[in-house]
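Data availability (excerpt). The following record was deposited with the supplementary files.
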Amino acid sequence: MKRVAVIGGGITGLAAAYRLREHAAAREFPLEVELLERGTRCGGALETIRRDGFVIETGADSFLSEKTSAAELARRLGLGAELIPTREIYGKTFVVRAGRLVEVPAGFMMLATAHFGPVFRSPLFSPLGKLRMALEPFIAARTIGDDESLDSFVTRRLGREVLDRVAQALAGGIYTADPKRLSTIATIPRFVEMERRHGSLFKGMRAAERARASKGSEVSGARWSLFQSFRNGMATLPETIAERLGGSIRTGAEVIGMSPTADGWRLALAGGGSIDADAVICAAPAYAAARIVSPLEPEAAKLLAGISYASAATVNLTFRESDFEGPPRAFGFVVPAIEHRRIIAASFSSFKFDGRAPAGAILARAFIGGELHREMMNLGDDEMVTAVRDEFRELLGVTAAPGITVVRRWPDAMPQYDVGHLARVAEIERLVAPIPAFAIAGAAYRGVGSPDCVRGGEAAADTIFAKLSTPK
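Predicted structure:
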């Protein structure tokens, strides 16, 4: 009987542990899996509160459908029927401009568009800003192949106004990051590739549009929306995996170090005690992974510790529809940093997905903190609620007191993909590769979304199982 210890009970660790179980069952291989989570619950940033008919997400509320790892795992778990698309009838996004909500122009994707018409008609940009965008197809492509910040990339191709008005809020907001430090290759590789292949984002967007139209004419049947979730909330996925793993999960078990033994590894736990294992998958945050591998590979530990994290909080509020003068029936809105407001974005969960609120009610949530608003994390919970209510009153005209309020803090939860991030990750992977029967995975490396984490956890499990099951 071989034993694998999985450090970290977020979706990465859960996916890795379940994948190991799948391999063992398929091969009839005697394997014990033990998942060690330092907290009191598993699931990490996938946490759902179900209360009074509301499905309240305190962390991630969806995942990209074009990245298939999470949906494929859900189907293997028998959750295929639980997957739901967004309500495309409300598929609009707004941006705050001068204290007003302005709709993102039709066809505008994060920082570029295939059609200038809607952009020219939009009040989001000034005449000079629109003119600068129109020059983008005529700007020479960058020939240097190294990484570049989002700030540099967007201003170089589209101008400062696109960065300040949209790109910082949309792209930077996903990572709660500083655009002057955010890596383009690690976060928006599609646009970097557009410039490389087509010499222009506009031309690249047009080519992508033609390709989608051609593919759409060849494929029949229903299409998934850009985002997916689960009927009863994102926690459905980790909860189901945890149920399948059962007694293999040990909470309140913080790993503080590991050392080699004659047969594998000994993991030291905070508060005393240890666990022996033949192999280890470390799905803990990079700063925790740094402490664990430091005695084994100091250079890798130094690089891991260099991956910084930002903190954020979500504030969920419930209202009656009558509390709004005219609720913006949309997925939500983002707030550029130049607006100097106290929230970085807000979403309307009850418009985005079916079944998130009872009839006649609205479930909204706001995002606070991030790299550019670190000071907001010093507020108490009541102060955060007050700040969100102030912003909702000014931007949405909502003066009524909310029914339910849920504040959830996520300290040091958002890894920052700084310029050069993928090169750093490649070096970390090179350095830890010689460590026997050991693998790392998680949001800190090659993608922060649930599908990225699932893919990374499963890849680590594949590697470890191959090492354990291959005859020596």
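Summary of structural features: The chain has a mean pLDDT of 94.
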